[in-house]
Amino acid sequence: MIKDGLALVKAAQHCWEGGLMPGTSGNLSMRTPRGLLITPSGVQYPELTPSDLVELEPGGRPLRAFSPVPSSEWRFHEQIYERRPEVNAIVHTHSRYATTISCLRRPIPAVHYMIAAAGVSQVRCADYATYGTAELGQNALKALDGAKACLLANHGLIALGRTLKEATKVAFEIENVAALYWHALQAGQPVLLDDAEIQRVVAKLETYGQP
Ligand SMILES: [Zn+2]
Prior knowledge:
The chain is of the alpha+beta class. Helix content is 38%, strand content 16%. It has helices spanning 2-17, 74-83, 96-103, 134-143, 164-187, 195-206, and strands spanning 27-32, 35-38, 54-57, 61-62, 89-93, 125-126, 149-152, 156-161. Strands 4-3-2-1-5-8-7-6 form an eight-stranded mixed β-sheet, sandwiched between helices. A hairpin with a 2-residue loop joins β1 (27-32) and β2 (35-38).
């Protein structure tokens, strides 16, 4: 637990420093044997410590007495862990470019091969629902079908991973692809890669990096 808590704090600060979470926005979680561990509500990321994190049992009750208030968006984290057994970590951001595209309620298309980090050739945009509601989680699950990322209309981005490292990487990569898409649109009509090419890259990424 202590090790998990430290890893979650480090990942949250890394995302904040990388500009993915303006102000106190966004949240991160990890699956635990008893439920999930999540960042608190209204967090000042530079001051976050492992004791500020909240472990929730299924249904959203904190496991520790006098625990801080969990992120108001804990519901969709729980809904995703329930439906996606391979997912062990979730990063949610209000990062600038992904959120810009979400305000247009458009998917992010394959303008760059690194969209394959999300395992798909198009990052879908979930229908709008008020933050913190079960409806938002249901909409997100639909948009996340077979994918490691989706946009939330007029809200932000959700990134998933088998590990915290992977979920963080997906969040950074998809924010970058969203930025490239936005910039390309300013200059013209971007040329998109086809599904077969993205599937080749998805397979290559599975074995990329150090063994
Ligand atoms: Zn949010």
